[in-house]
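To close the chapter, one final illustration. This time we ask the reader to focus less on the individual chains and more on the assembly as a whole: which components sit near each other, and how the overall shape emerges from the parts.
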Amino acid sequence: MATNKEELSLLGVIGSPFVCRVQIALKLKGIEYKFLQENMANKSELLLKYNPVHKKIPVFVHNEKPIAESLIIIEYIDETWNQNPILPSHPYQKALARFWSKFIDDKVVGAAWKAFMTVDEKEREKNTEEVLEALQFLENEIKDKFFGGEEIGLVDIAAVFIAFWVPIFQEIGGLRLFPSDKFPKLYEWSQELINHPVVKEVLPPRDPVFAFFKARYESLVASK
Amino acid sequence: MADEVVLLDFWPSPFGMRIRITLAEKGIKYEYKEEDLRNKSPLLLQSNPVHKKIPVLIHNGKPICESLIAVQYIEDVWSNRNPLLPSDPYHRAQARFWADYVDKKVYDLGRKIWTSKGEEQEAAKKEFVEALKLLEEQLGDKTYFGGDNFGFVDIALVPFYTWFKAYETFGNFNIESECPKFIAWVKRCLQKESVSKSLPDPHKVYEFVVEIRKRIGIE
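The assembled structure is written out below.
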């Protein structure tokens, strides 16, 4: 139960899909916290102290106790604050939610990034294929408005990467990663997600994120 | 109505071992089904259509895939016996963090050790030992990673011990001399019947790795 005495902070960068996941979870629960913007090219003492193992963001700090890894942070938030549950309560449904969230991390995120940040045609093709295969599984999985049912849940939050970031990569790189004609249900889901009242408030403005990734892509192309 | 629990597994898989240990810890009766990974059963393909991998836990006909997810599922369903995760959310998050660390580091680095040579192998060995040392630091003076009680991180990690003989032989190094506290922890775990009965003989695993190396053409 959050009280005035709770000290909550989130170390992150605006524009990171992993940080965004945690912000959605916090907003959903109505939890107030301090956002500490990191510079990944010059990591703060605090970040190195709170995540010495991976030195990555997001890191959520609750009364000076740090938790790292976005999906682990979300489970922690869900277990600590009971309002607006994010994970299902039924053990089997919970296991499925964890499975699909992990699937997104293992099969979509890495491949999408590799398909985008490469000038090697073969690498691009191979990773694009992987993303399309993975998205097909998700297309077959979506049965309601959201993966979580009528309301967003763990999988929807994990998949915000697909709804907001993949289309940006697609546009910059001229890729066919998430074609709406191939994945009509998933496309509709993505629109519902980015327009969801909580998600809409948390998502970063598109233009600066677009500009950031475009600059990274262009510097990669220039260096080859 | 009795619970029907089936485990689709492959004897040298450290991921399968995690579930075996958990089922033993909870005293759950189950049917063990050995899969031939070069000829996967229809049941496996139907139960894990996404990854087509073992282990798969099937509870009353419903499949749960991914070893740590299955372990947590067992914990959630059979919550009244032998808890394997701490009750406090912060300590649970820490347990999940370290189990995730094991997943990210130990398997892949170990695999690199027995499949590569030269500089690549040396780098993998170095990183592997560093990872074990970090885990030793985490363990500290505790009996188990879970504290006084054997728990989630212990279950996630101890199965990889069965592959150490293979790593040591092909990597030409000695893990106990580098990480004595780690091996001392392993020995404590092996004193538990749930662990000793769930883990194969490291020598058998070593022979299995010799076979695989021949099969995939590593000299």
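The beta strands of chain A are 8-12, 34-37, 59-62, 65-68. The CA atoms of residues 195 and 201 of chain A lie 9 Å apart. With these observations in hand, you are ready for the problems at the end of the chapter.
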